[in-house]
Amino acid sequence: MPLSEYEQRVLEQMERALTSDDPRLANTLQSSGRRSVLRYVLAGVGVVVGLLLLVVGVASSLTWVGVVGFVLMFAGVVFAVAAPRRKSGPAGVVDAEGKVVPPKPGKGKGKPSGKGGWSGFLTRLEERWDRRRDQGR
């Protein structure tokens, strides 16, 4: 059942509002979530080989072979589940006109967004801890 004109307009307004409020989230939601079949095949092969090594290691009492098999199985599962790395594109945010706006200086990786940086974050954590400790008494 197709959407009515009113529903389409409301949906477009919501999409524009989301894009203007949080461009990163909008970009994440619009990107395709499909993963390569080759990724799953390689992960499956890794899990199967790891399982075989684990069984052989246990059967022959070679602990190191079992450990290698377990690590290989674990790595295969992580490889299948983990999101593939994105190719690095232009740094910054795309504005409403389609231009790339470079990131603001001082807003590097490793700092939480918002007021105060790490010191403000740690201060808030300490305040929460103190309140919880005081409530327990």
Automatic annotation (TrEMBL):
Keywords: Membrane, Transmembrane, Transmembrane helix. Residues 88-137 are annotated as: Disordered. Residues 124-137 have a biased composition (Basic and acidic residues). Pfam families: DUF3040. It comes from the Bacteria. The chain crosses the membrane at residues 37-56, 62-82. InterPro entries: DUF3040. This is DUF3040 domain-containing protein. It comes from Myceligenerans indicum.
